[in-house]
Amino acid sequence: MAGRGRWMMAFVLLIWIACCNWDQVSVAAFPQYHAGGSMMDLQHHIEFFDKNKDGIITLAESITGFIAIGFEPVFATTSATATNTVFGPLTTPPGRLPSTNIHISHIHRAIHSSDTGAYDRKGIFVPENFEKIFKKHSHIKPDALAWWEVEEMLISNRDINPIGWAPAEVEWQLAHLIGKDSLGYLHKDTVRGIYDGTLFPKLANRTLTLRSDE
Questions:
Q1: Which residues form the signal peptide (predicted)?
Q2: Mean pLDDT of 16-40
């Protein structure tokens, strides 16, 4: 994506932070995340960014992670700052002072409206809802989404309450940016890799290879 498009995403995300409040979910806390322990699907989604595996994603770790998967440092810093500013307070465990640190054990509290439903309210992956994404919106290529098909999906998923519109838009813009092929299609297996977190290490390895060849 051109630099202008990247800055637009960052701008939208920052405006959303300033003007809106993320929907919070009232559910029981998960068992404390720890290295090698049992994790919910949504926790697997973000564990790549927890470099020291202590269950907390600091701002520095987020910036490092964004750079590792291929974003330019300035954009990575802007996006990571926005992400931790939103997710940190929402995921702070009860009894602790809110901070910009993202606590993986409570990441379920960051689930928002107007999403695909591929994660349920407890952060568990729902295969049938994931399949619906492509059954409903893959019009040109089976099991792949052009950008306009992604937009169609986002519009169809919008709730009456607009609070969730901006985060859903930014999430999928980022997904399309990092996962699209040379023709601009976002494939089903790539999206699945984003949901389960397996795509991020692959992107990091690819980025490392590209940089070593420069």
A1: 1-22
A2: 42
Q: Quote the longest CA-to-CA distance of the chain.
A: 50
The residue segments making up the domain with residue 84 are: 41-213
pLDDT tens digits along 151-174:
999 999 999 988 888 888 888 988
**In Å, how far are 50, 76, 80 from 61, measured between CA atoms?**
7, 11, 9
**SS3 assignment, position 198:** coil
Indicate whether 58 belongs to any domain: yes
User: 24 in a domain, yes or no?
Assistant: no
Query: Do 118 and 74 meet the contact criterion of CB atoms below 8 Å apart?
Result: no
**Using an 8 Å Cβ cutoff, are 179 and 187 in contact?**
yes
Region for residue 53 given its phi and psi (left: phi exceeds 0; alpha: psi -120 to 50; beta: otherwise): left
Distance of CA 40 to CAs 57, 110, 119, 122, 127, Å? 16, 14, 10, 8, 14
Angstrom distance (rounded) from CA 149 to CA 48: 28
Q: How far apart are CA 165 and CA 83, in angstroms?
A: 16
Average pLDDT of the chain to the nearest whole number: 84
Residue 147 lies in a domain: yes
End-to-end CA distance of the chain: 20
- Enter the pTM of the model: 0.78
In a domain, 2, yes or no: no
